[in-house]
């Protein structure tokens, strides 16, 4: 039984003995202070991360996702958030990962980012190559003794050259995108990957878009999970790869650059990567290339959705 402070008074008493996720025990949102609690139709609680994982696993196994407790069907349309539990749990004490003190979950993130004296921080001289990471309360002592401000010009130039190389790689991508935007023929469209199963004895999940037209040509996109490994549902690491297929006949080689980005209404995190291919009637499909999703959590978000909605950009290279 936990007593919650409301308007400075102990006004509400809420019993949260059963308020735990059915999968990631012992506590709902124990890994994060930003909690989303999801209810099945019979009232059993799951955290949002486990809920998405269940939907993704069901998609991979071609099964209906079910509640791990009562086995009723679950989906984004059948389940709902429990705002009362979310509010209550946000006020429960949670341990700071740095100083191990207890704080209400609602302020834990601010404490860890701005207030905790044991939070991990960096030396202010990191811009000239200092690699030090340590607790905030040791920062002043370290900076007073840091050797980097006393390095010679030649030593600093070597460090800055290494940092410039890393920075140039990042800038190269954005400069490439800006260069592509100056091309005469540019096309983009929203694409919707729909799930299908192969005809193998052990079927595998794959995705395919309806045919679409960009740059006056007809195209199709296909995608697969973990490069079509036999049981991707047994793997914690999940990836998506895709290929672009030209369905039109062309009279001359069609040289294109292309990239996939998230759709306008999705929150999935995709890093832009530019791919390049020369399409001909004999070679009309690219190899499978990685969809640059940040991590497996983002991949599960895509797999849990009914369809995957992304945006394709095509740039025709004219010689």
Automatic annotation (TrEMBL):
InterPro entries the UniProt entry points to: ZFTRAF1 (IPR039338), Znf_RING (IPR001841), Znf_RING/FYVE/PHD (IPR013083)
Source organism superkingdom: Eukaryota
RING-type domain ranges (all copies): 21-71
Single GO term (MF): zinc ion binding
GO cellular component, one term: nucleus
Keywords assigned: Metal-binding, Zinc, Zinc-finger
Record-stated family: Belongs to the ZFTRAF1 family.
Protein name according to UniProt: Cysteine and histidine-rich protein 1 isoform X1
Organism the protein comes from: Bison bison bison (North American plains bison)
Taxon lineage: Eukaryota, Metazoa, Chordata, Craniata, Vertebrata
Designated gene of the protein: CYHR1
């Amino acid at each position: 039984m936990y007593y919650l402070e409301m308007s400075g008074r102990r006004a509400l008493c809420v019993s949260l003995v059963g308020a735990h996720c059915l999968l990631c025990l012992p506590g709902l949102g124990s890994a994060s202070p930003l909690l989303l609690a999801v209810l099945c139709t019979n009232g059993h609680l799951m955290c949002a991360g486990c809920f998405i994982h269940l939907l993704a696993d069901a998609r991979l196994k071609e099964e209906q996702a079910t509640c791990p407790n009562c086995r009723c069907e679950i989906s984004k349309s059948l389940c709902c958030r429990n705002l009362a539990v979310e509010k209550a749990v946000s006020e429960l004490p949670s341990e700071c990962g740095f100083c191990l003190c207890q704080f209400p979950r609602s302020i834990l993130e601010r404490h860890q980012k701005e207030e905790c004296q044991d939070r991990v921080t960096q030396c202010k001289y990191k811009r000239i190559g200092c690699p030090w990471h340590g607790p905030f309360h040791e920062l002043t002592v370290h900076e007073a003794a840091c050797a980097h401000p006393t390095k010679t010009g030649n030593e600093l130039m070597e460090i800055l050259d290494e940092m410039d190389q890393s920075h140039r790689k990042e800038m190269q991508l954005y400069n490439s995108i800006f260069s592509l935007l100056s091309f005469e023929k540019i096309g983009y469209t929203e694409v919707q990957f729909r799930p299908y199963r192969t005809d193998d004895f052990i079927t595998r999940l794959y995705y395919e878009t309806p045919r679409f037209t960009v740059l006056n040509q007809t195209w199709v996109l296909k995608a697969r999970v973990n490069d079509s490994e036999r049981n991707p549902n047994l793997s914690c690491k999940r990836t998506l790869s895709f290929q672009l297929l030209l369905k039109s006949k062309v009279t001359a080689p069609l040289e294109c650059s292309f990239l996939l980005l998230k759709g306008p209404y999705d929150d999935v995190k995709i890093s832009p990567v530019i791919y390049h291919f020369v399409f001909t009637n004999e070679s009309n499909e690219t190899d499978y290339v990685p969809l640059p999703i940040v991590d497996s959590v983002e991949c599960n978000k895509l797999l849990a959705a009914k369809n995957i909605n992304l945006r394709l950009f095509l740039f025709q290279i004219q010689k």
